[in-house]
Amino acid sequence: MTYWYQGKLINSQTLELNINDPGLLYGATVFTTLRVYNYSLDNYLTNWDAHCSRLKFSLQTFGWTEPNWNCVYEGAKVLLQQYPVLRITIFPDGRELILGRSLPGNLTHKQEHGIVAAISEPQFVRSLPNHKTGNYLSAWLAKNTVPAEEAILVDDQGNWLETSTGNLWGWQNGCWWTPPLAVGILPGIERSHIITNLHNHQANLKQYPWTPELVNTFEAIAYTNSVVEIIPIHTVKQPHGSLQYNPYHSCFLELKGLFVA
């Protein structure tokens, strides 16, 4: 495996960290994962500036040292020649670690036909939901403890928040719905991209809590993130029964059109 760490390109399956590194002990890092379009960090769909801004916001909030951003850019440019997906991690002292990976092998099938999701336990909510930190245990546990391809995180009242890897979207009666940030969800890069474009096209959009009653009224739902773009959800398994949605709904053409490079 090839990765970038502290200004150097390294070929190894391991990374050496100090035994007392807070990133190792506490997950004290911030990260962002981006998809590179047309081998370019400057492509508007890559959203390089937005991903860097996400990192800077968290670093400034926590009072951590910012990295050498030119070095981060250089590392990303080197790795994008091999990998379409980059995960940029910043440590509290400003060290940068950039990993690359491939797109999911069955991504096109999921985008076209949808997936099964399941409601996770209320205890699996994100810590510091406004920031993408290395303490990702709750989301990881949620996804790996449900009998489905994706987990939907909920609060104590059963309101749907987001999936373990992305933001939720619903459609009913000519209007898009997505949970507001105020309920405690990650402000996704693609979420912002979609909201901006929907507003520019004067499309109907409501940011409203997804109560157990509301989710029963949707005709179609999906989730988004920077890697998978948009994936419909056709079935949601609940503790008692399941909900069915239309993964082929024409509404998805509007959102899929936002990811054409």
Q: Major β-sheet, in short?
A: 9 strands, mixed
Spans with pLDDT under 50 lasting ≥5 residues? none
**Helix and strand succession?**
EEHEHHEEHEHEEEEHEEEEH
Cα separation of the termini: 28 Å
Structural class of the secondary structure composition?
alpha+beta
Helix content: 10-25%
Strand proportion: 25-35%
Number of beta-strand segments = 14
Q: Give the overall silhouette.
A: globular
Number of helices: 7
Radius of gyration: 19 Å
In words, what does this structure look like?
The chain is α+β, with helices and mostly antiparallel strands and 261 residues long. It has helices at 22-26, 48-62, 69-79, 107-113, 137-144, 189-200, 252-256, and strands spanning 2-5, 8-11, 30-35, 85-90, 96-101, 115-119, 150-154, 160-163, 167-172, 175-178, 205-207, 220-225, 229-237, 242-244. The protein is built from seven helices and 14 strands. The strands form two sheets. Strands 6, 7, 8, 9, 10, 11, 12, 13 and 14 form a nine-stranded mixed beta sheet that branches. Strands 2-1-5-4-3 form a five-stranded antiparallel beta sheet, covered by helices on one side. It is globular, with a radius of gyration of 19 Å. The two termini are 28 Å apart.
Briefly characterize the structure.
This protein has 7 helices and 14 strands. With 261 residues, the chain is an alpha+beta fold.
